[in-house]
Automatic annotation (TrEMBL):
Gene source species: Mycolicibacterium nivoides
SUPFAM superfamilies linked: Homeodomain-like
Keywords: DNA-binding, Transcription, Transcription regulation
Superkingdom of this protein's organism: Bacteria
Boundaries of every HTH tetR-type domain copy: 18-78
Pfam families: TetR_N (PF00440)
Amino-acid biosynthesis keyword on record: no
Listed name of the protein: TetR/AcrR family transcriptional regulator
The UniProt record lists the keyword DNA-binding: yes
Location of the DNA-binding region in this protein: 41-60
């Protein structure tokens, strides 16, 4: 390592944990996107940041905590996108709104694929199991809050009973759609139309 690199590394190590943590998470997401979750290790994060491992460990106790913190942060991005799939409360039952929503979701998934793989990956990292459960609970709670007034407008019967079931169905459709969107060979228009119409019909299935 040359003198300039050593100097840069020394300066980097003096940022402090509070300022360093967002960089650690950004780097972890970058590694996950390029190489997969299995390569998100404390050593790889340190190497990519150009710091020593103790600097990374000062931010998080271990790999599991890095992945959990990353999942918590990326859940916010996922949640915002899923909430946008639901039509505004002022509208009626317009199927095209769901199709348009899934078309927009496709663009979001392609822009931040690692975020979606962390949450909806077919083979999640075992270290993330508890964090994924928490993240999905957040998704369910927020979706239920937004869906309730919409279903009330649609005069869905037995709403308190139907709402949790419809949330699960909607989330399952979204999860299947995201996995298809992560497939580079998928036809974006066909995916948006198929899953958008399926979500609409599922939401209107309960009279």
């Amino acid at each position: 390592m040359n003198e300039a690199a050593i100097a840069n590394r020394g300066r980097a190590e003096h940022l402090g944990p509070d300022r360093r943590r967002p960089q650690v998470l950004d780097t972890a997401l970058e590694i996950a996107a390029q190489q997969g979750l299995a390569d998100v290790t404390m050593g790889n994060i340190a190497n990519r940041l150009g710091v020593t491992r103790p600097v990374v460990y000062a931010c998080y106790p271990g790999r599991g905590e890095v992945l959990a913190a990353l999942l918590d942060r990326e859940t916010d991005e996922v949640l915002a996108s899923l909430l946008e799939l639901l039509p505004p409360q002022r509208t009626g039952s317009i199927e095209q709104l769901f199709v348009d929503g899934f078309r927009a979701l496709h663009s979001t998934v392609r822009e931040r694929p690692a975020s979606w793989r962390i949450m909806f990956g077919a083979d999640p990292d075992p270290v993330l199991t508890a964090a994924i459960v928490r993240g999905r609970d957040r998704l369910r709670n927020q979706l239920a809050t937004v869906m309730r007034p919409l279903l009330q407008r649609w005069q869905v019967a037995d709403l308190d009973i139907a709402l949790p079931m419809l949330v699960e169905v909607f989330l399952a459709i979204c999860e299947a759609a995201v996995r298809k969107m992560l497939d580079a060979d998928g036809d974006s228009e066909l995916v948006a139309e198929t899953f958008g119409k399926a979500a609409y019909r599922a939401m209107r299935a309960k009279p």
